[in-house]
Amino acid sequence: MTEIRTPRLLLRRWRDDDLAPMTDINADPQVMRWSEEGPSHDPDATAEAIERWEEEWDDEGFGLFAVELLASGELAGFTGLSIPEFLPEALPDPAISWRLGTQFWGQGYASEAAQATLEFALQDRGLDRVISIDRPGNHASANVIRKLGMTLERETAHPVSGHPLHVYAIDLTEYQA
User: Fold this and answer.
1) Where are the alpha helices (DSSP H) in 28-176?
2) Cα–Cα dist 45/138, whole Å
3) CA distance readout (Å), 37 to 64, 96, 109, 174
4) Which pTM was predicted?
């Protein structure tokens, strides 16, 4: 089982008891404001998403980690790598992403988890390049991306919604742990 420990977090695979807190996170309109998925109070939809994330681990050797606070054992949300199938122009590069509950915002958890995931991608999994995709105006996400050392590669639009997107990238030669 793949786990990563940071000073304050445990990045781990998903467990059954993660369903309720992740459903709550997905139901929060503030959390989902920048997501194409939109808020959902549906536990079945969250269970299906977790199942897809776990399948990606099996298929790709990476996926989205559950992010747990070491101090309390609370599920804060997710971070990890996924293949952005929705944006063919970004393929085949894996994208790093994160989603945390609002009570965990502003404490550096997203940056800490994303940095550990980037290290995992480039050093442990031997990936040469990682991207991140965000929507203009999502300043918190852009701040995490900046801290990762990623640079803007292109501006594009979501192929379904038409929302503008920024694609950032970093490769192994640019990465400094």
Assistant:
1) 43-60, 109-119, 139-147
2) 24
3) 16, 17, 23, 32
4) 0.93
> Which position has the token pair 């079945």?
44
Mean pLDDT over 121-142 rounds to: 93
Q: Return the percent helix, strand and coil in the chain, to nearest 5.
A: 35, 25, 35
Query: What is the average per-residue pLDDT within 104-120?
Result: 96
- Percent of the chain exceeding pLDDT 70 equals 98
Residue type, 98: W
Q: How far apart are CA 69 and CA 73, in angstroms?
A: 5
pLDDT reported for residue 35: 85
Q: Which residue has the tokens 């990465």?
A: 175
Residue at 54: amino acid letter:
E
Task: Specify the pLDDT at position 52.
Answer: 93
Token pair 């298929």: residue: 59
Residue for token pair 């894996």 = 94
Count H helices, E strands: the chain?
A: 4, 8
